[in-house]
Each structure stands twice: as structure tokens, then as C-alpha cells.
Amino acid sequence: MSSPLSGRILVTGGAGFIGSALVWALNQRGLTDIVVSDYLGTDEKWRNLVPLKFADYVEAGHFRTRLATDPKAFGRFTAVFHLGANSSTTEKNAALLIDNNYAYTKELALWAMAQDARFIYASSAATYGDGAHGMDDKSDDLAALRPLNMYGYSKHLFDLHAQRQGWLKRIVGVKYFNVFGPNEDHKGDMRSLVNKAFAQITATGTLQLFKSHRAEFKDGEQKRDFLYVKDAVEMTLHFADSARTAGGLFNLGSGQANTWIALADAIFSAMGRQPQIEFIDMPGELRGKYQYFTQADTAKLRATGFARAMTPLDAAVRDYVQNHLMTGRKLGE
To answer: For the structural domain made of 4-180+225-255+294-310, what CATH number should be given?
Structure first.
């Protein structure tokens, strides 16, 4: 059985953070027969595309409209990576999220399966909510999950739909945890703390972190599973080989929870500075929607044969800070 990567590849959201990193990783393998689709809009994410090699670019709105009238308009693909989405966890326009993250994903999944293309889509760790019902990708009880924001819910809706339709036997949904790394500059408030902290420390010498508003967590000891984007795309490409697993939902994380303080210390160290941290109150509107602990159980991923070691947090932060943030280099430059 030939790999889906041996043919034509579609990457939606391909100008974005993880999407452009995925195109870069494909280029690293010598693969360039790639169609990139995205909403370029008015931000600077187009810059992520400049060093990359691909066959064509199509605006997402045009791509979606053409497919609706002619499913064969863009030819056949052997692999479809659907990473395009509205990823703002504070987005208030629920209709926009439902259309972008749920309806469009349904349309693309049906189209990809109809042409027997490998379909890999971005779900999210946000579907787990506060983790009260676990963060277990091996559980079939998806209906028990309670996302904390509309973004997470829009992703959760498609997971539920795919399960009801029996699609999860054929397609792969990847639940990214807290991904950070190069090519995220355009994301504004949705940038990782590493990106924000670099700018803040450069300007003021100090990093501000949210205080804890739960007694069981001291300030700065809230924990997240931080995943370097270079590891995230290797995990994602792993699923492009249909021989490895039929389908399903998979956690993509480092498998280790680290405190915000540990992350901050790694950032200061990479910048050659002594840690200077100031704790500030968390905005009221975030307090009921804040995840205090996330950690990916990656046993299901490992069981599919993914054996690559994760980049240690301090090494990942050092690479990002010194080779990208300090130099301004995009992936591929």
C-alpha cells in the first residue's frame, strides 16, 4: 500500500501556525505537490508561506464554493490535512465558529472520503474542558465532555458528528494540546506565552503571569502540556500512513505537564536573563473558562508506532527563542 503522502496533498490553514509548519515538514521530506488553502485576510501570516514550496494557493472561501458546485474542481488528492479553523478561544460569534469549525469540516470530510483521500483534521484539547471528565482519547464517551468555550464546543460538535456517522473508523482527529513555536507571530492574543513573553521581557525585563484563583494551585503552578510545533507536525504526519491506524481521535502532546513558572524560567534562560516574574489578577471573564491542568495521555498515539522522542521543554524553548524569535526567521528560511 502506497503512502497517502506519495500523491497530491491539500493543507487547509496552510498559511497559519501549525499548517505552515506542516508544509515545512513536508518540504523537509522533499514533498512539494501541495495545495495550500487559507483565509489570508489582513494579518501577516502570508509571510509564513514565503520560504515554503507548494504547487498552488487557493483562498479558502473560493475553495469551499467551488467544491460545493464541482467536487472535482481541484482534481484528486491522496491526503487532506484540515488544519484551517477559527482558533480563537475568546471568539464571541458562535455562528462564525459553527460555520468555520463544524459545517466546513463536515463538507471537507465527506469530499475527502468520497475520493478515498486520507483525511486528518484538527480537533482540540479544548474539547476536554476543565478535565473533570478526563483527557482520555481512548474513551468512546465523547458526550460526557464539557468544553469551556465556544471554540472548544465547535470542535467537539464535529467529533460527535464523526462518531455518530461512523467516520472515525476512517478519518483521524488530532487533539493538539498547548502548541508553541515559530510561525505564530500573526496570532495576536492567541500566541503562545513563549512568543508573548519574549516581547514583554525584551521591552520591560519582566514577565507577567496570571495569579491562581484556586486554592490547590499556587501562583504560577498551574500546569499545561506544552508541545513544540516541530514535534506536533511530526505526530500529525505519522497519521498520513493509513497502514498505521484506521482512524480515531488522538491526543497530541508532550505527555508531560509543566508549570507556567518552569516555562518562564526556560524563556529567561534562553534569553540569557535572570527570571523576573510579576503575578497579576486573571480577568474575571476568563476565570470560569481557565484550564488549570492539562496533560496528554499519549499511550494511544504510541500504540500506533510513533516512537519519536519529544523535544524537552527547555531545549524546545531555546531553539524557538534563539533560532527564531531572536533572528525573526520563519520555518524554511
So the answer is: 3.40.50.720
